[in-house]
Design goal:
globular; 3-stranded mixed β-sheet; 198 residues; 14% strand; 46% helix; alpha/beta; disordered C terminus
């Protein structure tokens, strides 16, 4: 997905309201920069995850929802985890610390008006993501894909050559990021349990 592709076609139907709000924001930043000289940088990150991630199965994006789902399955000793879609849709993820680092990097090294994509440069299928999360959480049951449910967009991978040319790359691998997020989730759950007992 290249930044210059924005508004060259129809928005993905299930994300349209969310996408329109984001497009309005980026166009506002570009207009303020042009008209008033506001040093606004428009950055589009890959899906961000990490400590503090929404892990509520009902409201979270795919990473948080799957971590919550697998953690719950381990806790309740479930034999299977059911995931929406075919598992073939591809997504790119960016660990929160890398996102913050990219923000600082751009503030120090960029003052143009081009939209900047920020990602790790690779994507995984939802099936691969689920298998990695299963390993990290210790889930050993079956992973079932409910193909009656939607996949959403089949691929979300950002073209990040501008960031690479500027000299920035993400540092946290997907597996390491999932391990850190799961560790935070476990600590959070322990604190919540202790608070309920007191």
């Amino acid at each position: 997905m290249k930044p210059d592709a924005i508004l060259t076609g129809a928005l993905e139907e299930t994300s349209e309201p969310y996408s329109l709000a984001k497009v309005a924001g980026l166009k506002l930043c570009q207009a303020f920069k042009k008209q008033y000289g506001l040093n606004a940088i428009v950055m589009i990150p890959a899906t961000i995850y990490g400590s503090g991630n929404d892990v509520d199965i009902e409201t979270a994006h795919v990473m948080g929802a799957l971590i919550g789902k697998f953690a719950q399955a381990v806790k309740e000793n479930k034999s299977e985890v059911i995931i929406w879609g075919t598992g073939q849709a591809r997504r790119e993820f960016l660990y929160a610390d890398d996102f913050v680092d990219a923000c600082h990097f751009l503030m120090e090294h960029y003052d143009g008006d081009q939209i900047i994509n920020v990602g790790c440069g690779s994507d995984v299928t939802i099936k691969e993501l689920a298998q990695t999360i299963a390993k990290v959480t210790g889930f050993e049951g079956a992973i079932i894909f409910d193909e009656t449910k939607p996949d959403g967009v089949m691929q979300k991978l950002l073209e990040c050559s501008t960031m690479t040319a500027l000299g920035w790359r993400s540092k946290v691998s997907l597996k390491e990021g999932i391990e850190r997020t799961y560790q935070w989730y476990g600590n959070r759950s322990s604190h919540e349990s202790a608070a309920l007992k007191s």
